[in-house]
């Protein structure tokens, strides 16, 4: 966010955060074995507080240096506002990829701008973890009972995870635990089920 140069917005945000309580983690992520609050839960929880302190948040697609981005603006009833823009890291350069990137960015930008915590704290393990093993496609041999997952399977897992708005570092960590083609097939099936059900 840019530096505050206005008083009413700053005072309202201080009061808002003083009233803010932890957001319930209403969604379970079976792929990562973790819990989190989805964007609907986050907004439902904080909207009354935003209204109480005469605040509103708007988000819309834009560009930054010619690249797709999301702009988030916090507005006070006085007309004062603060905003910043976040690049979208789209998995695919098509409408579906764009939509997934926007969905992912909206949740994280909204929470970051307002100082909301709605994910489990792993004490920085995911951010500081070593780069997981990335399996290359292998040719199945007659006596090979545990074929490694193919690159196509891993790409599909990344694609579905991005569509669901999952954190990329967590995705890579989970991929590092997938040892066989069968494991990859199960992960793809679970992710596809979540996509089909609209559980983001």
What does this structure look like?
The structure is a single chain. The model is unreliable at 26-33 and 121-141 (pLDDT under 50). The strands form two sheets. The protein has a three-stranded antiparallel beta sheet with strand order 3-4-5. A two-stranded antiparallel ribbon has the order 1-2. It has helices at residues 7-19, 39-52, 95-114, 125-128, 151-163, 168-175, 181-197; strands at residues 27-29, 34-36, 55-64, 67-76, 81-87. It has seven helices and five strands, in the order αββαβββααααα. The longest helix has 20 residues, at 95-114. It is elongated. Helices cover 44% and strands 16% of the residues. Strand 1 and strand 2 (34-36) form a beta hairpin. The protein has two domains: 1-121, no CATH class; 122-200, no CATH class. With 200 residues, the chain is an alpha+beta fold.
